[in-house]
Amino acid sequence: MENLTILVVDDDPVIRRLLEQRLAKQSYVVSVAENGQQAEAALREQPFDVVLTDLMMPGGIGGIEVLEITKNLYPDTQVVLITAHSSIDSAVEAMKKGATDYLEKPINFDELFLRLDKIANVKTILRSAKDIEQAMTVTESAASETIQNLEMTVAKKQQLIDAVEDLLTDDTLPEDERIARAITILCENGN
């Protein structure tokens, strides 16, 4: 399973650094932003599998806005909000807007890693489903082409059978000549 790319957005340098170190130690590919503006700039440069953002940040772009920007740019990116206990209602509201999940501070890293594993598993399942869908499309196209080729071959063979039948039932020609011509037609078209 490929490692998730994660953008950590938090205005608290201690929490940001702790998240960065713990996630990198678990082999996640981690980028950080110290505010919503930096998060927006990072998101405009590249997509991430997961955005892990603090809900409450100073400045014009908080966690809800980071969620909205992320979902507008990359609808498949999963957004997990980090919230203080007092803002759980806001986190629930954010989930209605498309957030995948939320975590309360202080962060329980076992819980975070379980949620990231769940996200990774869902991404793997979705990728497998897309691969299967693509394979089915290719198979369906090949089957359709094969059926069309078989139908054309059957039509040509039916024309040949009809021509031989017409020749063999033509009473205006001697029987030996009818048989000889039928054999000639069959030999010429016997591929």
Q: Could you explain the architecture of this structure?
A:
The chain has helices spanning about 15-25, 35-45, 65-75, 90-95, 110-170, 175-190, and strands spanning about 5-10, 30-35, 50-55, 80-85, 100-105. It is an alpha/beta fold and about 190 residues long. Helix 4 (about 90-95) links the parallel strand 4 and strand 5 (about 100-105). Helix 2 runs parallel beside helix 3 and helix 5 (about 110-170) runs antiparallel to helix 6. The longest helix is centred in the C-terminal third of the chain and has 60 residues, at about 110-170. The protein starts with a strand and ends with a helix. The relative contact order is 0.09. The model has no long low-confidence stretch (mean pLDDT about 90).
SS-based class: alpha/beta
* End-to-end gap: 51 Å
Q: Helical region count?
A: 6
Give the strand tally.
Answer: 5
CATH architecture of the largest domain: 3-Layer(aba) Sandwich
- The CATH superfamily of the largest domain bears the name Response regulator
Mean pLDDT: 90
The third-level CATH topology of the largest domain is Rossmann fold
Label the overall shape.
Answer: rod-shaped
Strand content: 5-15%
CATH class of the largest domain: Alpha Beta
Query: Any idea how many domains?
Result: 2
Biggest pleated-sheet summary? 5 strands, parallel
| Estimated helix fraction | 55-70%
Low-pLDDT stretches are none
Please give the oligomerization state of what you see.
Answer: single chain
Order of helices and strands: EHEHEHEHEHH
Rg from Cα: 33 Å
If strands are numbered along the chain, what order do they take across the biggest sheet?
2-1-3-4-5
